[in-house]
Specification:
Helix content is 35%, strand content 23%. The protein has 438 residues and is α/β, with parallel strands linked by helices. The chain has 3 domains: 123 residues, Rossmann fold, CATH 3.40.50.12160; 242 residues, pyruvate-formate lyase- activating enzyme, CATH 3.80.30; 59 residues, Beta Barrel (OB fold (Dihydrolipoamide Acetyltransferase, E2P)), CATH 2.40.50. The strands form 6 sheets. A 6-stranded parallel sheet has the order 2-1-3-4-5-6, sandwiched between helices. A 5-stranded mixed beta barrel has the order 17-18-19-21-20. Strand 5, helix 5 and strand 6 form a beta-alpha-beta unit. Helix 9 runs parallel beside helix 11 and helix 12 runs parallel beside helix 13. The longest helix has 24 residues. 42% of the residues are buried. The model has no long low-confidence stretch (mean pLDDT 95). Bound molecules: S-adenosyl-L-homocysteine, iron/sulfur cluster and FE3-S4 cluster.
Length: 438
């Protein structure tokens, strides 16, 4: 029997889909990339913006058409939209067999069997109490070949930023015991993983007893064979001095951080409930560069939040240039049901949001180009994770998270190089990556 999983949304969902495949494999389902070949098809959905929710619903709609030709195929709607919409998805998408929220994936095989027994469709949502056993540990199959892995450190978020649906769809904050995280990292390293990305919606507010997030990073730094640690996403409010200094001190902690700023206007930040100022954010960025020269800082931002004026928006453009972000993920504000800002008028019209998005892209592209060009002629350590753009090239990421495509000098075979750390001299900066030679 085969299982197909289609994933939308953030790294938490990518991570969850990995756990879903493992659980289904243990129940006798081999993963497949072809929905036409699947006995069980699972949509792991994202609800962060209305467009994301729609994409997942359309994907489930396409699977329903496929199901007409494949008798016995089961469709499971999982993830954040499942949590948000619950059983009403059965009315919206007649023919789907189960709806399951992010805290219940351990129950998937049972749910699928129940659906197979011809009962009525089943919905399983709501949140667990976060006991140590409620974190799904990774159980990679024999075919694990990745050099990088996600490790979850917390579930949920209680920050309640005004625009954000995550607290509703991922529930209250629950932190995984530190020892379990270190054990999972050890196991993954034993299986050939060299780089770990710690995951949580507000990862730097992590605590385990009296141990902080920085303590966790230090504990992981001691795992022998682990070369690199990253994490995503930190909240500026929890960027304390110890964590900032860790970037200069902890050898495995990479010289890159993704830290969402959301806006360059204090008025907008205040209405978003972000609990920091633009000045504080700039101070954090400067301190990170003091602690760790060469660190690259990337961010998320929202354009067209209710009441965002042209002046507010221009402040955001100025902040991009001031901080010199190496990457900016920018989004048009999308009102989400049940969030604090959903009661505010969505008063920046769509065409104006599009204009602001384009302006962000323009400023960002120029800043990014300058950053990439500064690497030409320099050497970067690349963790190889696959083939490059051009046949014969290998590809991977530098510690600063830049993608580097390069030719091996002696043309060694790709199979042997995956997961290897290679010193690469950068020869050229392209729009989305660097090129070089080993
Ligand atoms: N937990 C992370 C990211 C959450 S979602 C954090 O706190 O930073 C990823 C990004 O989606 C956010 O950083 C934000 O920029 C964007 N986003 C969240 N809600 C949104 C909404 N309602 N409309 C548009 N963008 C949104
Ligand atoms: Fe959403 Fe804010 Fe929590 Fe991030 S910190 S997940 S933006 S509520
Ligand atoms: Fe989307 Fe859920 Fe992640 S709403 S951004 S998949 S936590």
């Amino acid at each position: 029997m085969k299982v197909f999983v289609q994933t939308f949304g953030c790294q938490m969902n990518v991570h969850d889909s990995g756990r879903i495949r493992e659980i289904m494999r243990q129940a006798g389902y081999e993963p497949t990339d072809d929905p036409g070949d699947a006995d069980v098809a699972i949509v792991n959905s994202c609800s962060i913006r209305e467009k994301a929710r729609h994409k997942a619903i359309s994907a489930a709609g396409r699977l329903r058409q496929l199901k007409r030709r494949r008798t016995g195929m089961k469709i499971v709607f999982a993830g954040c939209v499942a949590e948000q919409d619950g059983a009403s998805l059965f009315d919206l998408l007649p023919g789907i067999d189960a709806v399951i929220g992010p805290d219940h994936y351990a129950a998937l095989p049972g749910l699928v069997a129940q659906a197979g027994a011809g009962g009525s469709p089943v919905a399983t949502i709501g949140f667990d109490n976060g006991g140590p056993d409620n974190f799904l540990a990774a159980t990679p199959g024999p075919d694990l070949s990745d050099a990088t892995a996600f490790v979850t450190v917390m579930k949920g978020c209680e920050e309640r930023c005004a625009y954000c649906i995550v607290p509703q769809v991922r529930g209250p904050e629950r932190h995984r015991p530190l020892a379990d995280i270190v054990e999972e990292a050890r196991m993954l390293v034993g299986r050939g993983v060299r780089e770990i990305t710690l995951l949580g919606q507000k990862v730097n507010s992590y605590r385990s007893g009296d141990r902080s997030f920085t303590d966790l990073i230090e504990a992981l730094d001691g795992v022998s064979g682990l070369s690199r640690i990253r994490f995503t996403s930190p909240h500026p409010r929890h960027m304390d001095d110890r964590l900032i200094r860790a970037f200069g001190r902890v050898g495995t902690l990479c010289e890159a951080i993704h830290i969402p700023v959301q806006s360059g206007s204090n008025g907008v930040l205040k209405r978003m409930g972000r609990a920091y100022t633009v000045e504080r954010f700039v101070e954090i960025a400067d301190a990170l560069r003091d602690s760790c020269p060469g660190i690259l800082i990337s961010t998320d931002l929202i354009v067209g939040f209710p009441g965002e004026t042209v002046t507010d928006f221009e402040d955001t453009l100025r902040l991009i240039e001031r901080v010199r972000f190496s990457g900016v993920f920018s989004f048009k504000y999308s009102p989400r049901p049940g969030t604090p800002s959903s009661s505010l008028a969505d008063d920046v019209v769509s065409a104006e949001k599009a204009r602001r998005l384009a302006a962000v892209h323009e400023v960002t592209t120029a800043v990014e180009r300058g950053i990439r060009e500064s690497f030409v002629g320099k050497a970067l350590e690349v963790l190889v994770d696959g083939e490059g753009r051009i046949p014969g090239q290998l590809s991977g990421r530098a510690r600063n998270n830049q993608i580097v495509n390069f030719a091996m000098v002696n043309g060694s075979a790709k199979g042997e190089t995956r997961g290897r750390l290679v010193q690469v001299e950068v020869t050229q900066a392209l729009p989305h990556c660097l090129e070089g030679r080993a």
